[in-house]
Design brief:
The protein is an all-alpha fold. The protein is 68% helix and 1% strand. The longest helix has 30 residues, at 447-476.
Length: 515
């Protein structure tokens, strides 16, 4: 059913953005690869908005590793005299571990609040407000006068990080063309690993005296950059549509796709998951002259007569399978042993090389992480999610086994090579795919709540592994890596049976497979 042309003409006349996206626009000639938005590619407008929003997960990546390199200069120094800020913050290893672990606790809090944030202020708007937390956290750490103040700053930064990695993937999936959703969503994971590399680089340069304050305060610069650029990004058109701002949603979608005909794509946005019903609604209840209809937010949309929230999504039969799958995807990712690579990298490399060279080689692990993650863009929308996920997990089984054998038998060269192999295996598959699937398995009604639970599971897994790894290793030695291998095999079997292929399918088509 075609939309009301008189109303669409009014939309065009009243929207400066839409005027640029008419059929005669040179932008459309360059950007669109077809006459409708369903077969459009990733335009510069879409890529630009995605890049700006990805400053949020980049900050998460930066905060993950900000205490790794400067640990020694933060905790050990000579007494400082005549300085308002102490040169260091002497603390025990237990206190330092607590400060590090509080980041994961804050992340859990942030991820569970992210659904409300994304629905109350929008996807883009929620991330803008989240920068308030991203400003406060680095300030507390950079100006810390006690270990407790440093720990509180870590917790606050964790809250912002938890919200960022829930909302950003959701935004990317909602603005991406259907056939290239995996490629665009990959920017989330790529931003995270770039953030990790950035903080490792800054930490290496600022690894002396009181310059550690520059390293932990660097996130402030990223937060301010995001705030300054956020006005250039558009709001998610799917969010606008769900809120009843349909003319605005169409305008934004035309801008993102670089084509004028967006009817077919809009027809797949059934707030009830029924595309035909949406087409009927468009015909029977077209936009009012001011371009709005009765607002309906995602949290107000109902499934089986019940509002979908983080508190009840697991009790709704139509979402329970997806909920369990995203929990296992994220929790299983952390049980794969990937974080042990970053824990062991310096220790293993320092057995063979000087401390300075080991720092450089550790940074090269970060470079490999970025390159391997970026390489997934060549495959994720060509071969699909399942092949990439299972190939990655199979390679990790081999690499983690080699790491455990190398460390257990004192084969330093094998252990060092295995460090790089684990990263190379994880980054293109088991790294980004769980984040992508977490945004694809739910329809618009449950997207925020499902994403919040998924990343909550990730944070819980991170915290458990961080707290349990060393005690278990002290009991069973390098056999601890057998736990990671076993987890990869069990999770791989479950995923093979229950995870659907989502390549080239709309969000509502994917959600329909679980009904």
């Amino acid at each position: 059913m075609r939309p009301n042309r008189a109303l669409e003409a009014q939309d065009t006349a009243s929207s400066p953005l839409l005027v640029q996206d008419t059929v005669e626009s040179p932008l459309l000639t360059r950007a669109g690869v077809g006459p409708t938005s369903l077969n459009a590619g990733i335009t510069w407008a879409c890529l630009g908005s995605a890049a700006i929003v990805c400053l949020a997960p980049l900050q998460y990546g930066y905060h993950i590793a900000e205490l790794n390199t400067p640990k020694k200069i933060i905790t050990e120094c000579a007494p400082s005299i005549g300085s308002k800020l102490p040169q260091c913050l002497p603390m025990s290893d237990t206190m330092f571990s607590l400060a590090t672990s509080l980041f994961a606790v804050g992340g859990l809090v942030g991820s569970l609040c992210a659904g409300w944030l994304a629905e109350r202020f929008g996807r883009r708007g929620g991330l803008v407000y989240n920068n308030i937390v991203f400003v406060l956290g680095p300030l507390l750490m950079a100006l810390a006068v006690s270990p407790a103040m440093l720990a509180i700053g870590r917790f606050v930064s964790g809250v912002g990080s938890g919200a960022a990695i829930v909302v950003a993937p959701l935004y990317l999936s909602e603005i991406a063309p259907v056939r290239l959703r995996g490629t665009l969503n990959l920017l989330n994971q790529l931003s995270i690993v770039v953030g990790i590399l950035l903080t490792l680089t800054v930490g290496m340069v600022a690894n002396r005296g009181s310059l550690w304050r520059v390293s932990v305060g660097g996130g402030l610069v990223l937060a301010c950059a995001h705030l300054a650029l956020s006005a250039l990004a558009v709001e998610s058109p799917r969010f606008l549509w769900a809120r009843g701002r349909r003319a605005e949603a169409r305008t934004v979608l035309r801008h993102l796709r670089g084509v004028a005909d967006v009817d077919a794509e809009v027809a797949t946005w059934g707030v009830s998951g029924d595309a035909e019903q949406v087409a009927d609604d468009m015909a029977a209840d077209p936009e009012s002259l001011d371009g709005t209809v009765k607002p309906v937010s995602s949290t107000e949309l109902r499934a089986d007569g019940t509002t979908v929230t983080v508190f009840n999504i697991f009790r709704l039969a139509q979402y329970r399978r997806q909920w369990l799958l995203v929990l296992l995807l994220q929790f299983g990712q952390q049980l794969s042993g990937i974080n042990t690579v970053f824990y062991y990298s310096s220790t293993v490399l320092e057995r063979m090389f000087s401390s300075q060279l080991s720092s450089v080689l550790t940074m090269l692990i970060g470079v490999l992480n970025v390159v391997a993650t970026a390489s997934a863009a060549l495959f994720i929308d060509r071969f699909g999610r399942r092949p990439l996920l299972f190939t990655s997990m199979a390679a990790m089984v081999v690499a983690v086994t080699l790491l455990g054998v190398g460390l257990g038998l004192g084969l330093n060269v094998l252990a060092a090579v295995a460090l790089y192999l684990v990263v190379a295996a994880f980054a293109p598959g088991f790294g980004p795919v769980p984040f992508l699937l977490g945004t694809e398995l739910f329809d618009v009604r449950a997207a925020s709540a499902g994403g919040a639970w998924a990343l909550g599971a990730n944070w819980v897994g991170t915290f458990i592994v961080a707290m349990a790894f060393l005690p278990i290793q002290s009991l069973i030695g390098e056999w601890v890596f057998a736990i990671f291998v076993g987890s990869l095999l069990v999770c791989g079997g479950v995923f093979y049976v229950y995870v659907p292929e989502t390549k080239g399918r709309t969000i509502d088509e994917i959600a329909a497979t679980f009904k």
